[in-house]
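Database export, one record per block. Field names are fixed; values are copied verbatim from the stored entry.
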Amino acid sequence: MSKQMEVTTVNNTTIKMRALALPPIDYLDTLPKWISSDKAVIKAICSGMTFIETPDNQKGMAINAILFKIAVSTACQLPTDERHIKALEMEMLKFMSENDAFSKITFEEILTAFRFNAAGRYDEKVTHYNNFFNLDYLGAVLTKWVIYKREIEARAKRELVRKNLFENHLGPELNDDQIIEFSKNEWGRTADFMFVMAKAYSILKDRKEINNDQVNRDRIIEMAHIKATQIYRQLPELNTYDPYSENETAFNIICKKIAVAEYFNGGSF
């Protein structure tokens, strides 16, 4: 296999792995809270190679194409002299390579970052000095992008875990760490938490990360009694609910929920 074919194979595998770490767009299309700009972030992350993955002999051409599109979308001016253009290209190559966060974004992300800046999607719009494109402008916009996309990407990964939870019923596709992370991120946010909470409790208990000695168990049971009484007061139709006797399953759920809550956020329930 030639060197070029090896590079292409490795890069294609990396792109596929990056895409598999995020939910597919057609799945996000079914979720009403995912607006078009959110999905544009995910599309940009999954589109093509990152800067560091791109072969060196292709980076210059890609940068030239990007600079032209940025100029069109932001109305900033580029150098017209061939030597200045070459110098800007070389400086941009060095600038992107030496920044760890920037080197790991795709070329489509760079374009999307500037489109989002032009659309005012960041907390503060970045302006270019004296209408000319320079590295300060590039760095400021990409810094905004990295911060902006971090939250969107984290949400997308939680959506993928949620998708796997319901489609695979906690099958082997999810490892224990993913289940714990999902439980932590979704604590109190959605009904999905209750679906996975008992599994999270079991994992933490097996890892001995939940204090399960008798003193702590007695304390949690006492807290659960208080919570059960609150449920009784809030839901009068449960007037036969007795946590001390018949409804053991429901009471155990309350105990586990308190234990997991203490592990994640100091007992807020």
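Remark 1: The chain has two domains: 3-153, 175-265.
Remark 2: The chain has twelve helices and no strands.
End of record.
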